[in-house]
Amino acid sequence: MNAANLDDLGAPSGAAFGLLDGLNEPQREAVEHGDGPLLILAGPGSGKTRVITRRIAWLVRERGVRPWEILAITFTNKAAGEMRDRVLSMLPARGLWISTFHSMCARILRREIEALDDRKGGAGGGWTRDFTIYDTSDRNELLRKLIQSANYDATRFKPAVIGAWISAGKNQGWSERGDDGTPQDGDDGIEHEVLVKVRLLYEAAMKKSNALDFDDLLLKVLELFERHPGIRDAYASRFRHVLVDEYQDTNAIQGRIVDLLVEKRRNLMVVGDDSQSIYAFRGANYANIFQFPKRYPDAKMLKLEWNYRSTPEVLALANSSIAMNAMQFEKTLRAYRPSGALPKLIQPDDASSQARIVARLLEEHRARGVPWREMAVLYRSHFHA
Questions:
Q1: Residues 43, 331: contact at Cβ < 8 Å?
Q2: What is the rounded CA–CA span in Å between residue 336 and residue 310?
C-alpha cells in the first residue's frame, strides 16, 4: 500500500495496516485503549516508544482523532524526533504536536505570552512574542555580571552555583516576587543576602531584556493557564488526547501543566518506569508516578514487563535490585532474548586499578575475536572518563 493512499476514504484499517502487528497483549491493550486516563508502567527495553507511536497512529486511523488534536510530550529533542519519524512512517499526518515540555511551552508562549502583560491594556509591561531564550551559559554569564555589579565576590559566589539554586527553586514553583525564595538549607547572613538579592536582580534583568530561561518557559505557561482560564480551556479543548513519556521524570510544574491540559477531557496516557528516575537534579519528582492513581482514581494501569533488550541473567540481577526499592509498583521484568553470559561484579581498590581491569577485559574480548566497535565502556559521570 502506497503511504499516500492512507488519506483516501478507502484506506485500510489500523489492523490491516499493521498497527497491532508484533505487539504483545499489554502493548496491544495500551494502543487500543479508549477514553480516560491510562498509566503504563514500562520497564527498560519493553517497547514503550512503539506503544506510544502506534497509539498515536491508532487514534488517527481508528478513532477519527485529527492529528492536531494530539499532544505527545517526551524529554529530549532526539526522542521527540524519533517519535515523530516513527509516526510519520505509519501515517503521513500533519499538525501533530510531538515535542519536549520546553519546546511545547515555548510554542505556546510565542502565541500567548503577551496575555501576561501586567499593565492595563497590555501596553508593553512584560514579555513580547519575540522573546529570547537563554541557555545555561547565557544565564551564568548574566549572573556573573550581576554579581560583580552588586560588588560581590564572583569567585566565592559562583554564577553556576547561584544559577543552579535559582533553577531548582523555579522547578519547585517559586514565584517571581522573591518572598518565597528563602534558602532552606541553613543559609544565612551574607550567603542568604547574596542568593536572594542576585535572584531578584536576575529576574528584573531577564524581564528588561525580554528573555526567558528554560525554567521560565514552564513557569510562564503555568502562570498563563492559571491566570487566564480562557486560554487554558482553548488548549484543553484542542488536545483531545495527551500522551506523556518518561512520566517518572516530570517535576511539579510539568505535572501541573499536564493536569490542566487534560482537565476538560481527561484523555491522558502517561508512560513511565517507577524504578528509575534520572532528572532529580532538574527537580524531577518520581513520586508523580505513584500519585497518578490518586489524582486519577479511574485510571487504568497496564504493565509492560517483557524486555526485548537484555538477557535473562541481566534481568534477574535487575529484578533482585529493584525488589529493594521502598516505593514501587509490583512488576517483574521478563526476558524475550535467550540466555547469555552471567554479569560480573568487580570491586577495584581505586581508579587506577579499575582502569587496568577494564583494559584487561577489553583485551580478552578482542583476543576472542570481538571487534573493538562492538565493545563499549559506560560510566556514570564525565569525570570518570
A1: yes
A2: 8
C-alpha–C-alpha distance, residues 119 and 370, integer Å = 68
Q: Cα-flanking dihedrals φ and ψ of residue 134, to 5°?
A: -90, 130
* 12 has a pLDDT exceeding 90: no
All cell numbers assigned to 189: 547572613
- Written as one letter, the residue type at 204 is A
Question: Residue 217 is placed in which grid cell?
Answer: 518557559
Residues 6+ apart with CB under 8 A from 65: 59, 240, 241
CA-to-CA dists, residue 308 to 231, 311, 378, angstroms: 43, 8, 20
Cell of 295: 489524582
Give tens-digit pLDDT for 333-344: 888 889 988 998
Helix axes 159-171, 136-149, angle to 10 degrees: 120
**Does the pLDDT at position 11 exceed 80?**
no
Kindly state the DSSP code that residue 68 receives in the 8-state scheme. G
β-strand pairing of 334-335 with 268-272: unpaired
The answer to whether the beta carbons of residues 80 and 100 sit under 8 Å apart is yes
C-alpha span between 322 and 316 (Å, rounded):
10
- Taking Cα atoms as reference points, which of 108, 61, 52 lies closest to residue 79? 52
State how far Cα 256 lies from the chain centre. Answer: 14
Query: For the residues of 109-152, what is the DSSP string, one character each?
Result: HHHHGGGG--STT--SSS--TTPEEE-HHHHHHHHHHHHHHTT-
* pLDDT(183) > 50: no
Q: Which amino acid is at 139?
A: R
| Polymer length in residues for the chain | 385
Strand partners, 134: 213
DSSP 75: S
* Per-position b or e across 345-382, b if 16+ CB within 10 A of its CB: eeeeeeeeeeeeeeeeeeeeeeeeeeeeeeeeeeeeee
pLDDT category of residue 57 using cuts at 50, 70 and 90 = very high
C-alpha cell at position 220: 510562564
CB distance 307 to 45 below 8 Å: yes
